[in-house]
Amino acid sequence: MRRRMIALAAVPWLVAGCGAAGSGAVGSAVHGYHRYSDPSVAMEPTIHAGGTFDARPVDPGDYRPKRGDVVVFTQPAWTGGSGRPQVKRVVAIPGDRVACCSPDHRVLLNGAALPEPYLAPGTPETAFGQVIVPEGRLWVMGDNRESSADSRSHQGEDGHGTVPAKAVIGVAVLK
Predict the structure, then answer these.
(1) Paired residues of 48 in beta bridges
(2) pLDDT in tens, 125-174
(3) 67 - beta bridge partners?
(4) Are strands 34-38 and 2-5 parallel, antiparallel or unpaired?
(5) Nearest C-alpha neighbor of 86 from the set 170, 152, 18
(6) Is the separation of the CB atoms in 50 and 36 below 8 Å?
(7) Does the pTM of the predicted model rise above 0.85?
């Protein structure tokens, strides 16, 4: 059995082989889901560093964007060309306007403060200018905003920090 490790900026890519007593599997027996392990803190408190989660596989180009989804995707430009899987939350979908911050320091989605119950209380936001998400792309952010290299960190690149929706390879199934 194997466990897929998620790679995030500045985190080495690891694929760990596990014996029969291993803690995860590439093709989990639970309805064909894939099991991933995230070595970083970027998605805390939703996914803890070293924690595992299952993701429903998505065929390339078949992901139908939904705000709030936690997705596994490959974005080679973000991983030095390696194309390693990453995990982030979909904050904005095509046509949305996203910016930060509201007067109470929250992300603005289409001009309104975004309710984000998945963030730890007191999570600080880093200001960023408005981005209109292009067709076929997503704006993604980690839940641990201080420790996540996400769309905000890549605004100077093609797509202005957005990720192609066709890069999504799985949608996390969280309890």
Answers:
(1) none
(2) 989 999 999 999 999 999 999 999 999 999 988 889 999 999 999 999 98
(3) none
(4) parallel
(5) 170
(6) no
(7) no
Structural domain span for residue 106: 2-173
List, for residues 78-96, the tens digit of each pLDDT value: 888 788 899 999 999 999 9
Token pair of 125 as six digits: 């936001």
- CA 90 to CA 151: how far, in whole Å? 10
Return d(Cα 8, Cα 12) in angstroms, integer. 8
Q: Number of folded domains in the chain?
A: 1
DSSP the chain: -EEEEP--TTS---EEE--TT-S--SS-TTTTPEEEEE-SSTTTTTS-TTEEEEEEE--TT-----TT-EEEEE-GGGGTT---EEEEEEEE-TT-EEEE--TTS-EEETTEEPP-TTSPTT-----EEEEEPPTTEEEEE-SSGGG--SGGGGTTSGGGG-EEGGGEEEEEE--
CATH of residue 31: 2.10.109.10
Contact in structure between 105 and 126 (CB atoms under 8 Å): no
3-state secondary structure 79-103: HCCCCCEEEEEEEECCCCEEEECCC
